[in-house]
Amino acid sequence: MSEERREQVRSLARGLAVIRSFDADHPQQTLADVARSTGLTRAAARRFLLTLADEGYVRTDGRLFALTPRVLELGWSYLSAMGLPEVAAPHLERLVATVRDSASVSVLDGDPATGYDVVYVARVPTARIMTVTITIGTRFPAWATSMGRVLLAALPDSTLDTYLDGLRPETLTEHTVAGADALRAELERVRADRHCVVDQELEAGLRSIAVPVHDSSGRVTAAANVSTHASRRDAAALRAEVLPELRACAAAIELDLRASG
């Protein structure tokens, strides 16, 4: 690759880093804030911010910078091409009407070296049961979620081994699976059972159950789940009352994906 080409690639990466530096905790930032969070010089951060402002992705009052709604185009292009959100939505709505708990679909993002997240691409909520608001694009560490474990369990053994060898799970609640070895054993159970229950590991009071969603070739391409408050259903009730409905929902999504493909 030529030096000019390498510089273009680096510039794209830095511009994306500037966009990612804005989040729910940092919706507005000064130039110094962006430079500090991205590791860029102030001069470089200023160039990227002004370029993004010229393109309509950032607005500024002269001191503070913030993203504009136009950045949604970037994610929507991916979701539109994917087709999954539109296909999944009506089936999730019917599932929620039946089980009366929130339902979602997510995909896996990342790599074994840097780690994996689940990214929500479709969701139908009921009552809010988490301290954080879940919207399209919300991310959670894959290892700590029911959908994430379903997706991780579908990875090739070599990829999964690389990921787990470098994983250092943090304790999110008193129920969180401790250590990579325990997580490896849990993922083996998920593979065998073809579903996963996570019981108050991501957040106290939250239980969820997830199943895989396959594409037309049989590859696991997404996961669907139902989340409930721990006081509403225990793990046994999730398996007895929700799992059959959740599997039917996933099968209906798969059928529509094949038809639309």
TrEMBL record:
Keyword vocabulary terms for this entry: DNA-binding, Transcription, Transcription regulation
Family matches, as Pfam families: HTH_IclR, IclR_C
Transmembrane regions listed in the UniProt entry: none
Domain of life: Bacteria
Residue stretches making up the IclR-ED domain: 70-259
PROSITE patterns reported for this sequence: HTH_ICLR, ICLR_ED
Domain spans labelled HTH iclR-type: 9-69
Keyword DNA-binding among record annotations: yes
Keyword 4Fe-4S belongs to the record: no
UniProt xrefs under InterPro entries: GAF-like_dom_sf, HTH_MetabolicPath_Reg, PcaR_PcaU, Tscrpt_reg_IclR_C, Tscrpt_reg_IclR_N, WH-like_DNA-bd_sf, WH_DNA-bd_sf
Protein name: IclR family transcriptional regulator C-terminal domain-containing protein
